[in-house]
Amino acid sequence: MITNERAHFWLGGISRSKSEGNLFDMEAQKSSRNFHLTGLPLKREDPFLFFREIETGNCCDSSGDELDVHQLLGQSSLRTSGRSKSVSELLDILDDTAHAHQNIYNSGQILEQDLEWLQNDREAYKMAWLSQRQLARSCLDLNIINQSPGWAQTQVAETVIVCKLSHQGGSVQLPESDITVHVPQGHVAMGEFQEVSLRAFLEPPQMLNDDLSCTVSPLLEIMLSNLNTMEAILLEMKIGAEVRKDPFSQVMTEMVCLHSPGKEGPFKVLNNCYIYKDTIQVKLIDLSQVMYLVVAAQIKATRSPAATIWDCIHKTISIGIYGPRYIHPSFTAIFIVCGHSYMPGKLTISDIKKGGKNTSPVVFQLWGKHSFSLDKPQDLNISVFSCDPDFEVKAEGERKEIKQKQLLAGEVVNQQFLFSLTDSGEMHLFVFRVQVEPPNGRAVTQFFVTTPDPAPNLKRLSNLPGDMQEEKKIKSAPLLPTACVKYPTFQDKKMNFTNYGVTLKTVLRQRKIDYLLEYFKGDTVALIGEGRVKAIGQSKVKEWYVGVLRGKVGLVHCKNVKVIAKEQVISMSHNVFTTRNLLEQITLPFKKLTYIYSVVLTLVSEKVYDWKALADVLGYSHLTLEDFDQMQADKESEKVSYIVKKLKEDCHADKNTRKFLYELIVALLKMDCQGLVAHLIQEAAILTSAVKLGKGWRELAEKLVRLTKQQMEAYEIPHRGKAGDVAVEMMWKPAYDFLYTWGAHYGNSYRDVLQDLQSALDRMKNPVTKQWRDLTGALILIHSLELLRAAAFSTSDEA
C-alpha cells in the first residue's frame, strides 16, 4: 500500500494547523520535521488527501500562536524556566489539565531537524529573534492583552512546505493553495531521495508588469536537494487570468511561465507549458537547486496596435480578509488585494499602527477570500460596513483606495480597517459587508464576512465542553458574485474508465449488504480511481476500492482484486455504463439520509446563482420571470428559494415515490455544483449519524477526541428536561452539537470528515454502521465526484 504523509511548515520549521480557521491547539511546543513521501497521487481535485498529518508528542496541529524559539534553537524549554508564563503557555497549561492529548498517528520516518535556515538566512534569524523577544515580553496584564490585535501573535508566518520523496515519487502541494509539484516515479535512483521545498511570495516581480505584460500568479520558489535526476518534474498552478475569446486576443496573447535562478531575475520563458482554462502545467526539465517561477500574460508583438495586455485578458483580482485569531473590543482587519488567487493561511503584518505607533509584527489569520473579474485597471474604493449594531467601523477607515497604477504594477495592496465595540454592545461574532467600486460608478463586487468568536475568558477555559467547543471553526459568510454564473450542461455519455481490477475469488453473501459488491472469480471490475475507502465489512474494518460491476456501483475488498491496466482488459462483466447511470447510483444514499430543511434551503439559496438553471434540471423549465411577480421575489436567492420550496412541496405530495433531498442532489450535480453537494453531504451525514447514535454519542466522542465526563455533560445541559436528564428521544441533539463542532474543524475537507467519522463509528463496541450503511454510500459519492465531473462535462464524444 502506498502511504503518504503530509507536513506543513512555517518558515523555520514551525508546523501549521490542519485547516484555516481551525483553532485546535494540541500542544504549544513543536519540533519541525521533514517527512518521507512516497507515491504519486492520482486525484487532482484533492491532492492533500494523500498527505496525512503526522501527530505525535512533538509534532501536532497548532494554531501557530505558540512559538518556542528556545526549543527551535535547541536550548532548554521555556516551560522549565523560573520566569513568568507567556499567554500562549497559560493557554496550553489549561489545555493540558482539561484533557489528555491523543496520539493519532505515529511514524518512524521523522528526520532530524535542520536549522541551517537560521544560519544562512539573516532575515529569518532576525524575525525569529524578534518573535522570541516578543514572547519574553508577553507575561503581561491579561486585561491588556484582551485589547491587543491577536494575543501576542508575532511569530513569522510565511508558509513553506518541505517534503522528502523516495524513488517512488509523490506530489507536494503548498498549503492553502492551488500550487502542486508532481514528482514522477523514477525521478531519482533507487535508494536516493529528493527533498522538495516550496514557498510562494505574494508580491510578483515588478519588472514583469507593464502595458504588454501582467503577472497572474505569485512568485514561486522551488528548492531541490538532489540534482542527480532521471525524470523531469511537473508544476501545476492556478492562474489569475484567461485570454479573451476575440480573434485579436487569441492570436496576440500568450500565457508564459518564466523562471530565474534569482528572486530578482532576470527571467526567461520556459517551454513545455500546457494551459487549460485557469490552470497551467509546466514540465521542468533543466533543474537547479533553487528556481524562481512566475506566470505572466504577455502580448507577443510590441508593434501591435495601441492595446495593452489588459485589453486581451479577463483579469482576476483576489481579496484576502485577515484578522486576529479572536476578536476583541477593538481590533484591526487586514485586506490584501492582489492579481492572483493565492492567499496564505496566515500573514505577518509589520505596519500595524496602534496609538499612533507601529507595533511589532503581528500574525493574522485568513478569515476568507473573494475573487472577481476586472475588465480594466482603474481606481477602486473598498468600503466596509458592519451589519451588527454592536460593532462599528472607525469613521476614518470606512473607505480605502486602490490606485490604478498599483493594479498596473501588479502590487499587493494592504489596507487596514479598524473595528470597535459600541458603548452598549456585547462581544460576539458578527458579519460585515465589503463593497468594491470605482470612485464614480457601479459596484464591481460585494460580499459578506463573518468574524471568529471573541477571545475566551482564561478563567473559564477548562469549564467549556472540551476543545471542540472553545475552538469553534471560523466560517466566512457566502461570498456573492454580482454576475450570473453560467452552469455547464450535463451530458449522458459512455464512461471510459482508466483503472480496472480482476477479482481473485468469488464473494457471494447470504445476507446482502448495501454498497458491497458481490462477484465471481475472474470478474473484471471498473475502478473509480485508485483511492481507497475504509469501512466495516461483515465483521471487520477493511480497505475497499470503489468499483462498477454489472451496472452497480459499490465496494470491493482490495485484497480480492488485482489491479490491471486498461490495455489488459479482455472482457467486461457489465453492459454500457453511462454518466447518467453513475449519477443515479452514487446519489442513492440521499434517499435515506436525514436533513434539516431550513439548512438545505439556506445553503442552496446562497450558493446557486441562476434560478433558471436550477429550474430546468428539476423539470420546472416552464417557469418564467412573470411567475415571480406575485411573490415579489426580486433577488436571485429568493427565486432559487422558491424553486427549492416548490420541489419540497411536490415531493411531499408524492412522498411514497419521490425523495426531496435525492432529487435536489441529482439536480445540483447536473449543474456541477460539487462544492455545494459536498457541504450538503457533510450536513446530512452528521445529522443522520447523530440520530442513529442517540446516547451512544458519548462513546463516539471519547474515541474521537477523548472528551471528559464533564465536557460531555456540558453538551447535554442545554437539552435537559425538567427532571434534569436528556430524554432518550432528544439525545440526538447533544450528539449533533458535538459532531457539528467536530466536523467544522476540517474546513472543506469533506472526504476526511466522512472517512474519519466512518472509522470512528466502525470502532465502537456495537457499530451502528453494521446495519446503517448510508455513510459508506456517502463516501462512495465523494470518491466518485471527480470522475463524474471529468466525464459528464467534457467536450469529447466519449467520457
What does this structure look like?
By secondary structure, this protein is an alpha+beta fold. Helices cover 24% and strands 25% of the residues. The strands form seven sheets. Strands 2, 3, 5, 8, 9, 10, 13, 14 and 17 form a nine-stranded mixed β-sheet that branches. Strands 12, 18, 19, 20, 23, 25 and 27 form a seven-stranded antiparallel β-sheet that branches. Residues 159-296 form the ZU5 domain. This is Metastasis-associated in colon cancer protein 1. Its main location: cytoplasm.
Summarize model confidence as the mean pLDDT: 75
Radius of gyration: 27 Å
Low-confidence segments, given as residue ranges, are: 1-41, 43-115, 131-157, 458-484
The chain-level structural class is alpha+beta
Q: What is the makeup of the main sheet?
A: 9 strands, mixed
Shape: globular
Estimated helix fraction: 10-25%
Residue fraction in strands = 15-25%
Per DSSP E runs of 2 or more residues, the count of β-strands stands at: 34
Distance, first to last CA: 29 Å
Short description:
This protein starts with a strand and ends in a 7-residue tail after the last helix. The chain folds into four domains: 160-306, Chondroitinase Ac, Chain A, domain 3; 314-450, Immunoglobulin-like, CATH 2.60.40; 499-576, SH3 type barrels (Roll); 591-793, no CATH class. Strand 31 (524-536) and strand 32 (541-549) form a beta hairpin.
